[in-house]
Amino acid sequence: MNDAFQVHSDPELWEELGMDVARFSGMPAMLTGAYKNIFLSQHNRPEKMSYFDDMVANIHTGRIREIHDAKKGGKPVIGTFCVYVPEELVVAAGGICIGLCGGAQGSIADAEKILPRNICPMVKSAFGFKVGKICPYFQVVDLVYGETTCDAKKKTWELLDRYVPTHVMEIPQMKRERDKRLWLDEVKDFKAAVERITDTVTDFDAVAAGIRTINAKRFALQRLNSLRHHNPSPISGKDMLLIEQIAFYDEPVRFAQKVHELCDELEQRIGLGVAVAPTPTPRIMVSGTPMALPNWKLHHIIESAGAIVVNEESCIGTRYYKDLIDEGSKDLEQQLERLTERYMKIDCSCFTPNDDRIAQVFKEYEASGAEGIIDYCLQFCHTYNIEAVKLREACEARGIPFMSIETDYSPDDAGQLQTRVEAFLEQIRG
Ligand code: BJ8
Prior knowledge:
alpha/beta, 8 strands, 53% helix, globular, binds Double cubane cluster, FldB/FldC_alpha/beta, YjiM-like
């Protein structure tokens, strides 16, 4: 345990960003305590995790200062909520793209003063961060780009626009030829909007550079994910999830380099037989809705119960990095078509039909050497919740141990979840 670890404070910076400083000032101590308990108490962590620990220590200070300074230097900052919004085009235009999904219980009460209570906690958490002025990332963005994936999100953007300029990208709900054409038009509109904000025109070379940068980040995550599939695992599921979360707010070139440094260490660990959990430790794959920072609830329960999480089939997980964009385009039109094709491979449950996702789950199940699937669904997320029916049937047909859970960010059901997870692990152990 690293007792010196501390999440830093910078009230002056927060003041400058228009935050509710009095209210936010207790947050670093709370996060410090949670991080020590959940992450730094783990045994035998890879040394190169120290970079990612530092990213957490600087989550409300150093990284925000870096973004704020870049913004003062003329770089616009765009916040997003979904992996369907193409960050390559933001990077191509010289901007900074950060994920704003909310994973904290602390901002839900702020949201519930305005929004209905019975909607997804991820939407409420993000909205509450903005209305409560308790998230420096929300305060530093110039504008946010939402999308029309689920009903909770698309209607919330109309209200969010009262607090921060909010643009919306239409994402079709099917993947037919006519939907592809609409999608490509939406990508072009997004590119034009980013160019207006950044006051630049992104030509072929700029888009090629944006694609290369984000491809490199996704490739680094692919490499890391395939190394963590080794049995016995050289890194915990919690640490992997943390890195997948940090991917949404770190500087992409540096992030990719740090992930590769960690991968090099994991290769050495595998060679030396160093692992974070012995064999046999039950290996669990998590599928379903994303877990935005600092939502570590389910992974912590699973790994505290003596299992290890070996894959996240999730947007904060493989859906974010499983596909790269073909870099061999000959002109801008082809670049945008290939970019669109790559984004259309993301198999979110907001699409119908969405059988590609079922096939993808099994592909990842095989690759990760998992022994059971826990499907994670945020409360009131109807599309993932209903899709869990098909996933369960498909798992039962293949004899794959399967459990679905529906939960939110509150700690209230932790005991109940723990009991269910333990029973599931007993089933796997036989
Ligand atoms: S591509 S999963 S990031 S939409 S969990 S807010 S769907 S009610 S997050 Fe998502 Fe894009 Fe899909 Fe991925 Fe709505 Fe469901 Fe909440 Fe969700």
